[in-house]
Amino acid sequence: MTLPGNVAGGSSTSYNADNEQSMLNGTAHSYDNNGNLTGDGTNTYSWDARNHLSTISQGRTTVGSFVYDGFGRRMKKAIGGTTTQFLYDGLNPVQELDGANPPNVTANLLTGLGIDERFTRTDASGAMSFLTDALGSTIGLADATGTVQTSYTYDPFGGASSSGGSANPYQFTGRENDGNGLYFYRARYYSPTYQRFIAQDPIDFAGGDTNLYEYAGNDPIGLLDAKGTGPALAVLGFTVCELYFVYRTQELLSEERQLDEQLLDIRKEIPGQDSCPRQRKSDSLENQAFTRTEQFTEEHTSDVVGEVMTQVACLGIAAGGMLVP
User: Could you tell me which residues come within 8 angstroms of residue 24 by beta carbon, excluding any fewer than 6 positions away?
Assistant: First the structure.
């Protein structure tokens, strides 16, 4: 299929029956039998047995190499002569180290519970706070005084430009810009130039896409794909769930306050204990108070359990589920 001139690459961009981008701007692309990009006219790409990108070469020179753990997390990258190693908390890197033996810490990251949720990155230049948009893309880095030191802008498919300079790699949708034209999206690598992934979705059509190379359902301003295995709404599930949890908690607290006020009114009616009739009335009112408390507990136990289960589900949404190697 050849695309019309208003599409990136114009009439010189074509695709084959497997949705592989076989030509871009007149330059032929090649793929292996697993659907991984192996050549784009400039770079040669090599892949390991699990379809992880292992090296990028230009001629006989290796310009990039990558190492992964058993969960598919990238533990080391070497690009342009600079080696960076990573220490993880779940899906998120929390520390960057150099290639020395033993390695030296080059940056620390303060992260949240959400996938790609980062607050600060501290390196030799100091601590910088992340300013992000609705997609989670970094649009600015602010120093301790709140002054923006680095600004980022993006085209719809993630092509980035920056001002101010920074070693921060976490840019479009919070993913790592390797500085070689590719973003690391965990299960796969993404090219903002090609506007697609350079390998097929490792979970095939279970990711929700009919085109196994397309990024975020071809809706990059409304969807994101933090793991490289399928699009998700730009509004993070964790945020939505947290707002709901706060709302329901406030409802329960309001009902509890109302009950406390009712119990206080009842206890105000309790007279002195100087006669049997008054004692019986006191016992009756106290029993009424106890009954109301018991009813409240029974009515809302299921609500509390429900909130706990909701939070578990929310954390699953936020973390993006299990890693796909």
Answer: 9, 12, 13, 40, 194
